[in-house]
Design goal:
Elements (H helix, E strand, L loop, with lengths): L12 H10 L7 H10 L2 H5 L18 H41 L15 E2 L5 E2 L1 H14 L5 H9 L8 H4 L5 H9 L4 H8 L6 H19 L34 H14 L6 H11 L25 H4 L1
Antiparallel strand pairs: 1-2
Length: 316
């Protein structure tokens, strides 16, 4: 059978409101709803309809437009909270990455030694993977930019040897995704280990989590939905924690709550005295009308959510 022809016509905002009402959504203020839909597209908002529809395109009895909007607001604040945590963790990882290898090799410019990185190879798509050269290209682009960063310009104006700035300057040029790829591209497992040890993790788990941090950071940066989603890049399960962690019943690493556990673990491991648990509880209490189980918090089999606050990870 051939594919169907997409034939849905565009609808005026007022007609979009009428469509929602015809599907059982309570909309007390149609004008307000139309205004909201002119700011948040129907398609974008429709992802937040699903938990309130036991039957496709039919809203559960009593579901209101305001509830859907509050769910959207909750997701927005959740992304801001997560983005803030990732920023702090990224800075800590960047710092240890620089410090540990600069110290090990006793070289401020260790990033210019090709031997520290894996041999270039072609992936299954035929692309050349060369972490060393990719980093060198980033540095070169920064040096030749018509408006270089102040610290790059200061170095190139005042120093001729070594040709590149020291690692602690060069690392400021990297995105978290580039940082993740650089870690993956280290040749020696010992180099990976000494960095991962700073975060109480085995290096294979740390590498996986760094990849997941990149993925979720991009979700937040592009304002995509974080609540009620399966993570396309699943972080590795932490089976042998060196610090406070959660019980095995919380091991659904496809869902957002597991990632929240990762954030808390990394913030604790990096020595940040944080108010993560209090901030998360405050967010959940302010949006108590939003079904929190869709974050991926497990239940006891009788419909009662497990008390994640009592887990060792969240007690401090």
């Amino acid at each position: 059978m051939g594919k169907k022809v997409y034939s849905k016509p565009p609808l005026p905002f007022a007609d979009q409101v009428q469509l929602l009402m015809s599907r059982g959504l309570a909309v007390p203020d149609r004008q307000k709803a139309a205004t909201v839909l002119s700011q948040i597209s129907y398609f974008r908002l429709s992802a937040y309809f699903l938990p309130y529809q036991n039957q496709k395109d039919i809203f559960n009895l009593g579901t209101t437009f305001d509830l859907v909007l509050k769910t959207y607001g909750f997701d927005r604040e959740l992304r801001l909270f997560v983005f803030d945590c990732i920023e702090r963790i990224e800075v800590a990882i960047r710092t240890q990455f620089i410090y540990q290898l600069a110290t090990k090799y006793n070289n401020a410019h260790w990033q210019d030694d090709r031997n520290i990185f894996i041999t270039p190879f072609r992936d299954r798509f035929g692309n050349t993977i060369d972490p060393f050269q990719s980093f060198q290209d980033i540095i070169q682009k920064a040096k030749t930019h018509h408006k270089p960063e102040v610290f790059i310009k200061h170095y190139t104006d005042n120093y001729g040897n070594p040709q590149n700035p020291p690692s602690w300057m060069c690392f400021e040029l990297l995105t978290i995704g580039e940082l993740s790829n650089l870690y993956k591209g280290l040749w020696e497992k010992d180099d990976k280990r000494i960095i991962a040890d700073c975060f109480n993790l085995h290096h294979t788990v740390f590498q996986s989590w760094l990849h997941s941090l990149t993925y979720v950071r991009n979700i937040c940066a592009h304002h995509a939905r974080l609540w009620n989603r399966d993570l396309a890049i699943e972080p590795a399960l932490l089976l042998k924690p060196r610090g406070n962690w959660v019980g095995s019943q919380y091991s659904n690493n496809k869902r957002t709550f597991y990632f929240l556990c990762i954030l808390k673990y990394l913030m604790d491991a990096s020595g940040q005295h944080n108010d993560f648990t209090a901030r998360l509880n405050d967010l959940l209490s302010r949006y108590s009308m939003v079904p929190v189980e869709f974050l991926g918090i497990p239940s006891d089999g009788n419909g009662n959510l497990l008390d994640w606050n009592s887990e060792p990870l969240f007690k401090n």
